[in-house]
Amino acid sequence: MFADESNAKCETFVSRSPSRGAAAIDAFSSPHLWRSTLLWCVPPPYLLCQTLAWLRGNRAKAILGLPYWTSHPIFPSLFPPNYTPPFVKDYLMFAEGMHVINPIEGARAPNTIRAYKGCMKKLLDFAKERRIDPLCPESLLIFSLRRLEEGRSLSSFKILSSSISFFSDPVSPFVSHMLSLFADFARRCSLVSHHKNIPVSHVHALVHCASLSPRDTNRLRAGLGTALSFGALDDLTWSKSLLKISIRKAKNDQASEGRETFLSIEEDSESLSLYDAYTQQVPRSEWVFPSLSHPSAHISTDQFRKDLYSLCEVAGIERVTPHQL
């Protein structure tokens, strides 16, 4: 999957393989190459999305060689149904099984490749169902939260992380940190026994991070920040009665006592203090501040609850009850 003298037919080509005629091993550090000449680009799979974004951002002309993997997140952008995007001038598609894709697939065991493709297909199907962009890193976090809510094991998150690394660009440090937290929750959490009349909750990203690390400010901030990051994906309605502040502690011996968890949502609670601290560390974007007209504005109790409920809705967590939040 690397360009060299034998497969690059242009004067200049971009390659990570140090061969005669290669313009640069790190092509993204030389933007003048993308604007001045026609390039032959054969990036490895995990750089395909970044290469396409770079080409479009610099209005560059290039011949892009990529494997015929319809499960790769870049395919919906390049080959949408029923029309050709304006930035694609022409394309030539070879039959599946050509030597172009064999070296990459041969680098992993067949069962591993099947597991990666299956996991990626589930992510794409989930994104299509929820009408979100599968190429957006936030969709990966929402999908991960959904699998966490389903009670998936640590191995499931390892496969998801490996498939993303195999097919896509490297994720941002923030997304990578959140994925590692989810995996840590899956590894360390143990299901809490519940009263028979209270449904089992698997919203570990909020509930179990409190029970495992109640004094870990960074972890709590990350969990709350993730919840607040996805409230703008849909225009959702919500029920005040569903999210009232009387949060029941969901343990068998205390379910009937109505004790509140640490995650109270009063105006002077630690939760809102953590949110205020979180806004100072994360870039101010529409993803992180879905509910605020201005990032520095004060967030109200009702708006905080609305964002948490929106997260559950987008992630597909339908049976939300007060004790879960």
TrEMBL record:
<dbReference type="InterPro" id="IPR011010">
    <property type="entry name" value="DNA_brk_join_enz"/>
</dbReference>
<dbReference type="GO" id="GO:0003677">
    <property type="term" value="F:DNA binding"/>
</dbReference>
<protein>
    <recommendedName>
        <fullName>Integrase</fullName>
    </recommendedName>
</protein>
